[in-house]
Design brief:
Helix content: over 70%
Distance between the termini: 26 Å
Oligomer: single chain
Radius of gyration: 26 Å
Strand content: under 5%
Number of helices: 10
Number of strands: 0
Shape: elongated
Length: 260
């Protein structure tokens, strides 16, 4: 947790809370990790002693994958997420048998599947966490160092290329720096992942207009943004200004910058 004092009066109290919370959080994390590590060990032993039992192998892989995800991105406070995790633990407890039973003839298969699940979860969750960190760095630099913020945005979209919001915000920074070709590509990629998001079409239309190469394409995007969200005044204003410029036979730049 991060605490930010609203004024100097609370600084001492906030610092005290942080000082007390840190050791408590570390101890709680150790207990939480041990609980799941023990569960993973039990799941693997279960799969090793149940010959040809696909359910046991699936439980072992599921518990291992969940453990890695939980250590990287804790979200058991969400009931809909916590239920599957503890159902896995319940299934594990219900299927436990005496370890004196003959060992499975396919222990390597159990280890291989569990390892694949762990590696996959680690890869996906790790990249997602790294992208979130880069995105936070991007926001911290936007006001003071737009070039640095854009570099952080590029790292963010490399780590999470399917996240349409990251792509759109990278497009905003590219447009702010006058890199219209790059902004257009970012917005197109964002639209490819979420084509019903009006703001993406609006941003693309404005950049196409500012670019001065495809006024008809810009109008089409602005019209689509207005159709998807007809109550947004800024979308209607942009479309009205663009249509008026076309009627007057000149391509003028829209004056207001894209907003977040």
């Amino acid at each position: 947790f991060f605490f930010q004092a609203e004024d100097g009066i609370r600084d001492h109290c906030v610092t005290g809370v942080q000082t007390c919370a840190l050791p408590i959080c570390v101890a709680a994390f150790v207990v939480y990790a041990l609980m799941w590590v023990v569960a993973v060990g039990g799941a693997i032993r279960l799969a090793a002693h149940r010959q040809g039992d696909a359910a046991a192998v699936a439980i072992a892989a599921g518990v291992a994958g969940w453990t890695v995800h939980g250590l990287l991105d804790f979200d058991l406070y969400v009931p809909g997420v916590a239920w599957p995790a503890f159902i896995l633990l319940g299934a594990l407890q219900g299927l436990k048998e005496e370890e004196s039973l003959p060992a499975s003839r396919w222990p390597r298969l159990t280890w291989a599947l569990t390892g694949l699940v762990v590696a996959g979860v680690w890869w996906l969750s790790g990249r997602s966490l790294a992208a979130a960190n880069a995105h936070g760095e991007q926001h911290g630099l936007e006001q003071t160092n737009p070039v640095g913020a854009y570099a952080a945005a590029l790292r963010t979209v490399r780590l999470a290329p399917l996240n349409s919001h990251y792509l759109s915000q990278a497009g905003d920074l590219a447009a702010h720096l006058g890199r219209f070709d790059e902004a257009v590509q970012f917005y197109r990629n964002a639209i490819a992942r979420d084509r019903y998001r009006a703001s993406f079409h609006w941003r693309l239309g404005r950049v196409l207009w500012a670019q001065g190469k495809d006024f008809l394409g810009a109008l089409a995007e602005l019209r689509l943004a207005t159709e998807l969200n007809p109550t947004k005044k800024s979308y209607l204003d942009s479309l009205t200004a663009a249509e008026e410029s076309v009627r007057q036979g000149r391509g003028g730049l829209l004056q207001s910058a894209p907003i977040n």
